[in-house]
Design goal:
five-stranded parallel β-sheet, 230 residues, Rossmann fold, alpha/beta
Length: 230
């Protein structure tokens, strides 16, 4: 119907590249309800800054920041435990059958649970998350089967009239393909933050920085974030 209002979708927005492109994709067909979690991660403040800037650029209708700092108490990850050192990038990271120390145990389930609760309250029928299967070698909660199973849980654990589906539009793309997709969509990639270690200037040495550097290189474009911090 001409002039009909778009439906609303909850989008998990960390402030990183994948979630930024996912939010930009979702904005084509949905009004945005952007959800950000502060869970005690090392770069918490910087990621939240990126979230706010991206939300402003995409003109999000709703924003919600939730505190899940109990993940710090649980520990077990270099991202939430200061006593565990963030490792330097390695070509073998995640490919040798060992889960990296930057894995936050079952993190995406916590994010999705909060997103489901909010979606049910505001009447959203979709939850978008920027999961990438390429990451699943190291992170078990990035696999397609994970989201299929969580979708079954949502169906079982919500009101009978609730119909919420999880969307993972980037799940089959490489990081370089995600960048190309973002450029086509005019996603504000320059506002995103990827570094695990630093909140001022990207360290350029952690796994996440290396993945980003390699992806921009493969995409054949310059990374404005690194250019702006030289």
């Amino acid at each position: 119907m001409p002039g009909a209002k778009k439906p609303i979708a909850v989008v998990l927005l960390s402030g990183g590249m994948d979630s930024c492109v996912t939010a930009t994709l979702a904005a084509r067909h949905y009004r945005l309800a952007l959800l950000h979690s502060s869970y005690g991660q090392r770069t918490e403040a910087r990621e939240y800054c990126a979230f706010e800037e991206i939300a402003s650029r995409l003109k999000a209708e709703l924003k919600l920041r939730i505190n899940q700092n109990y993940m710090t108490a649980i520990g077990g990850s270099a991202l939430t435990d200061q006593s565990i050192e963030v490792p330097l990038a390695s070509p073998l990271t995640g490919t040798d059958g060992v889960i990296p120390v930057t894995y936050v145990p079952f993190r995406n389930a916590h994010f999705l649970a909060a997103a489901t609760s909010w979606a049910e309250v505001i009447g959203a029928r979709k939850i978008f998350i920027g999961a990438v299967e390429q990451d699943s070698v190291g992170y078990p909660d990035c696999r397609p089967s994970y989201y299929e199973s969580f979708g079954d849980l949502i169906e079982t654990g919500t009101r009978p009239e609730t119909d919420i589906k999880i969307e993972t539009p980037l799940i089959g793309l490489s990081k370089a393909e995600i960048i190309r997709q973002g450029l086509l969509l005019n996603a504000p990639l320059e506002l995103t933050w990827s570094c695990y270690q630093s909140s001022n200037k990207p360290c350029g040495a952690c796994d996440s920085c290396e993945l980003r550097r390699r992806a921009f290189e493969q995409a054949g474009v310059e990374d404005a974030l690194f250019r702006s911090t030289d």
